[in-house]
């Protein structure tokens, strides 16, 4: 079985998979406006195991694993190596998203149609990861409103996912530089 593209455990048994590539960050709000901030780790946790995950990234994982099994059955070492490299790169990204401060823009793209309503509900002009210190530094005068749980709810998480998303926010993230090349 393809261990590197297998289901990745994040925390207390949480499994996740990100999109092929992260999407560019959303436009930043103007200084002086209210900005919604979120803990990206909670977003990654909420996404995993959701119906949306199973219809998108989880489906992609299953397809890649089936492709790996086919390549293995055919003895196609080159394709197996390509799929293993894909799995390793994504496993590293997933760990950075679930344990550290890596952007989750690709995950948020899955709920892009819900973001205007979430922003309106929170009374914010834009959203920024609370870990994006560069964007937040540009918005020093901006009032920050934590919208993490509004975003979490958009993924319709299970009670357990919600519990893990809340718990993750109680702990400091692993510094991103410590996650470089880290494999679980």
Task: Describe the structure concisely.
With 184 residues, the protein is mainly α. The chain has helices at 40-47, 51-55, 57-74, 77-99, 105-108, 115-122, 133-138, 148-154, 159-168, 176-179; strands at residues 8-10, 14-16, 34-38, 126-129, 143-146. It has one domain.
What does this structure look like?
A three-stranded parallel sheet has the order 4-3-5. A two-stranded antiparallel sheet has the order 1-2. 36% of the residues are buried. α1 packs across α4 and α1 runs parallel beside α8. 51% of the residues lie in helices and 10% in strands. The chain has one domain. The protein has ten helices and five strands.
Describe the protein's topology.
Blueprint: E1 8-10, E2 14-16, E3 34-38, H1 40-47, H2 51-55, H3 57-74, H4 77-99, H5 105-108, H6 115-122, E4 126-129, H7 133-138, E5 143-146, H8 148-154, H9 159-168, H10 176-179
Parallel strand pairs: 3-4, 3-5
Antiparallel strand pairs: 1-2
Features:
two-stranded antiparallel ribbon; 3-stranded parallel β-sheet; 184 residues; elongated; mainly alpha
Spans of 5+ residues with little confidence (pLDDT < 50)?
A: 1-27
Q: Quickly count the domains.
A: 1
Could you tell me the radius of gyration in angstroms? 17 Å
Biggest beta sheet attributes: 3 strands, parallel
Major sheet: order of its strands? 4-3-5
How many β-strands, per DSSP? 5
Helix content: 40-55%
Number of helices: 10
User: Between the first and last Cα atoms, what is the distance in angstroms?
Assistant: 16 Å
C-alpha geometry: elongated
Strand content: 5-15%
Average the pLDDT over all residues and give the rounded result: 81
SS-based structural class? mainly alpha
Order of helices and strands: EEEHHHHHHEHEHHH
